[in-house]
Amino acid sequence: MKFKWREMGAGLIVPVILIAIWHMFSTNGWVNPQMLPPPGEVLLKWIAYATPAEAHDAAQGNILQWIFSGELVRDTMGSLYRVVVGFLIGAGLALPLGLFMGANQFVYTLLNPLVQLHRPIPPIAFIPLAILWFGLGNAPAIFLIALGAFFPVLMNTIAGVRHVDGIYIRAARNLGASQMTMFTRVMLPAAVPYILSGVRIGIGTAFIVVIVSEMIAVNNGLGFRILEAREYFWTSKIIAGMYSIGFLGLMIDIAMNKLNNYLLRWHRGLEN
User: Fold this and answer.
1) What distance in Å separates the CA atoms of residue 197 and residue 256, rounded to the nearest whole number?
2) Which of 169, 204, 205, 213 can pair with 141 through a Cys bridge, CB separation 3.0 to 4.6 Å?
C-alpha cells in the first residue's frame, strides 16, 4: 500500500511542475491570457461547467437531481454512452473475426488483403459517408467509433492467435488434443494478453473518434461543447472540456489496467 501511494505521489510531480510553469507564464503576461488562461481560471470554468444553473433546487432537498443535472455530467454521459456502444459493436465484430483469421490460414489469406486495404483509412475519413448513410445524431457517431475500435482489436487478436508458442501446440497435439480443445485451451488463453492490449488501444481510439464525431454529427457531448466554446472564444472552457476528456480516459485506462492485471495474474510478465 505504501508503494502504491509513493507511486501515485511520484506520478503527480511532473503535472504539478507543468501547472506551476503554466501559471507563471499566464499570470506574468508572457503569453496572452485570452489564448492560454491561468489554471485557476480554467478550474473555475470547469466548476461552472459542472454546476447546473438550477442550483437553488439543492436548497429544496433535490440534492441528487442537482448533482446529476449539470451540463458537464450530461455531456460526459452522452460521450461515454457513444464510446461504450460503439466500442462494444466494433470489438464484438473484431474479436470472433480475429480469432477465426488467426486460427485458420485459408481464412487469413482470403481476408487479410481486404483488412490491410481498409485499416490505414482513418475513421474520420468516413464522416461524410456516415452522415449520408445515417444522418445526424448518435448513429453516425457510433458507427465511426465502432470503426475506430474494430481494427486495433482485430489486428491484436490475429497477432495473439498466430504467435502462440509452437511448443504449446506440439505438446497439445502429442497429448491427443482435438482442434477445438487446442483452440479453447491453448490458443485462446495464450492470445489473451494481445487481445487485452488491442482492447486498451481500441478504447483510446474510440475516445479520439467520439470527440471528432461530436463536433460534426451531434449536438451534445464533450466534443460538441468544445466546438461551441471555440465559436464563442471561451478558451478556458475549451481547456476544461479537454481535461474532462483526459480525466475520463484516465479513469477508464486505470480500470482496464486493473482488469488486465486480474485476468493476466498467471502471466509471467506481471510477476514481481
Assistant:
1) 10
2) 213
* Chain mean pLDDT for the chain: 79
| Residue 258 burial (C-beta neighbours within 10 Å; 0-12, 13-18, 19+) | exposed
Chain CA centroid to CA 148, Å: 10
DSSP string, 145-184: HHHHHHHHHHHHHHHHHHT--HHHHHHHHHTT--HHHHII
- Residue 239: what residue type? I
Q: What is the C-alpha to C-alpha distance for residues 101 and 249, in angstroms, rounded to an integer?
A: 30
* pLDDT at residue 61 greater than cutoff 50: no
Model's pTM, two decimal places?
A: 0.78
Question: Which distant-in-sequence residues (6+ apart) come within 8 Å of 228 by Cβ?
Answer: none
Task: Tell me how far apart the alpha carbons of residues 154 and 86 are, in angstroms, rounded to a whole number.
Answer: 15
Indicate whether 85 pLDDT > 90: yes
Place of cell 506481471: 270
Helix (H, G, I), strand (E, B) or coil at 218: coil
CA-to-CA distance for 8 and 28, rounded, in angstroms? 31
CA angle 101, 103, 107 (to 5 degrees): 40
Cell output for 20: 506551476
Q: Identify whether the C-beta of residue 154 lies closer than 8 Å to the C-beta of residue 98.
A: yes
- Distance (Å, whole) CA 119 – CA 202: 13
C-alpha cell at 62: 433535490
Q: Which of these, 149, 139, 132, lies nearest to 204 by C-alpha position?
A: 149
